[in-house]
Design a protein that fits this description.
With 134 residues, the chain is mainly α. It has five helices and no strands. 22% of the residues are buried.
Length: 134
């Protein structure tokens, strides 16, 4: 699997959110680096748990900023976050039951990360980026 690599094309104009997105990529890359472990291993479960926790932290922060700034597509954005959280929570459960398809999960996570930032998050850049504030 190819590692997720951050570059400026992923910047949403808010340094803190960019750092959050980079951390999510690091966690997905850690999971990819652990592919040789059994899917139910403590290492895989720990990484998935960390990914779930950090995604929830990031999403709460991002959603708060969007709400404060009056971002008009907040409801749709929340739906995207909810789908991701459900997928990761389900993966955590599957890992503990030895039923996780790790390659399929990694494909989903990588595609989601890139698509979500470049297609969904980038839309809020005009509302949240410091240089665009009144």
């Amino acid at each position: 699997m190819t590692q997720l690599i951050w570059d400026d094309s992923f910047s949403v104009g808010v340094p803190e959110l960019d750092r959050h997105h980079q951390r999510l990529a690091e966690l997905i890359n850690e999971l990819a680096a652990s592919q040789d472990k059994p899917a139910h291993s403590e290492e895989i479960v720990d990484i998935l748990s960390a990914l779930s926790d950090y995604a929830n932290y990031h999403f709460a922060h991002e959603e708060h900023l969007m709400g404060v700034r009056g971002y008009p597509d907040l409801a749709d954005h929340l739906s995207e976050h909810n789908v991701f959280c459900e997928m990761v929570a389900n993966a955590c459960y599957q890992a503990t039951c030895s039923a996780l398809d790790l390659p399929a999960l990694l494909a989903y996570l990588c595609t989601w990360w890139e698509d979500h930032i470049l297609r969904v998050d980038i839309k809020y850049k005009p509302f949240l980026a410091p240089q665009n504030r009144p």
